User: What shape does this take?
Amino acid sequence: MKIHREGKKIIFGTLTSLFVVVFLMLLMVEQWTWLHYLFVSILALFALAVTAFFRIPRRIFADSPSQIIAPADGTIVTIEQVEEHTYIKGQCLQVSIFMSGTDVHVNRYPADGVVEYVKFRRGNYFVASYPKSSDLNERTEVGLRLNNGSRILIRQVAGVMARRIVCYAHEGEQVRQNQELGFIRFGSRVDLFLPLDFPINVGLQDKVKNGISPIAEIV
Assistant: This one.
């Protein structure tokens, strides 16, 4: 397991703060009680949780040029036909993955292709599982033209606690399936907008893993 680069400064700051607090307590508190030990334990658990949030577990990624692979870890919360106005500009299938605070928050490209569209949009910070959060929350949109000419849109959506969306996409870039697309800090969702004729391989409330779980077939 590795630690994502987006978390190294945060983890360092968290651990440094923990050590400073404990050091000051050792200097100032002559007789520790169970409350002091409980306080330090809570701080240690918080530091451990922050570290775990930025983990990148070792995985054997799918090598599936004929499939759309999950761009994020989490739970499928939306599968519906919608009108997409920014890149696909027409009817398509929306598949949304909600990421809880305990999920791995690395986002990956679901297929090979060329990045044709990148747009950051400011917005609100509603709960990411709320259906309208896809259109109302702060978000980043990445339009990808697949090798067969089909177009898909990947949308990183902020949530209540997710105040930073990191996106590494650049227009004109050739990308590979499972290459890092970005990172979202502290709970959010990723929406996929796919052509209507792509058969879907998941159902509502299914758990998926980035780089592993097949979402749809490319036709």
Summary: The chain has a mean pLDDT of 88. The radius of gyration is 20 Å. Residues 2-56 form one domain. The chain is about 20% helix and 35% strand.
